[in-house]
Write a structure and sequence with these properties.
Blueprint: H1 6-24, H2 31-52, H3 57-83, H4 89-126
Helix pairs in contact: 1-2, 1-4, 2-3, 3-4
């Protein structure tokens, strides 16, 4: 049985939650905020999935970096919805916390992949 990929499962779960929040904003003046949140929030998982099939380490790092940027953008929209009192704290706080977790995971993944690439370059220079 394959090992579960934490960032994939978190990003997928987060996408579902973002979709639910965005649906609640349909027909309201805050619809555009929901639309932006939907786009950024679901893009995280899409980029993580693409990274899994990356053609190279650079491609993997690029896709994971994009996912990280989308997660940070999602945090911005969630913060606006929270502090602007558009969505109740009970609904939004757990989603914000999950997004913060995803940002931390993606940051660690990108740094690790970059460090492995640098170590590989140094090893080749010494040879």
């Amino acid at each position: 049985m394959p090992k579960e990929n934490l960032v994939q499962s978190e990003a997928f779960s987060f996408s579902l939650k973002v979709m639910e929040l965005a649906k609640k904003l349909r027909g309201q003046k805050e619809f555009e905020l929901g639309s932006q949140l939907w786009r950024a929030g679901t893009s995280i998982g899409a980029n993580v999935e693409e990274a899994q099939a990356g053609q190279s380490r650079a491609d993997f790092i690029s896709k994971m970096t994009i996912a990280s940027k989308e997660a940070r953008e999602s945090l911005y929209w969630l913060r606006l919805a929270d502090e602007g009192k558009i969505i109740s704290p009970e609904e939004i706080v757990p989603v914000r916390e999950q997004c913060e977790k995803i940002v931390r995971i993606l940051t660690a993944i990108v740094k690790t992949a970059q460090n492995k690439g640098e170590k590989s370059k140094m090893k080749n220079l010494k040879s």
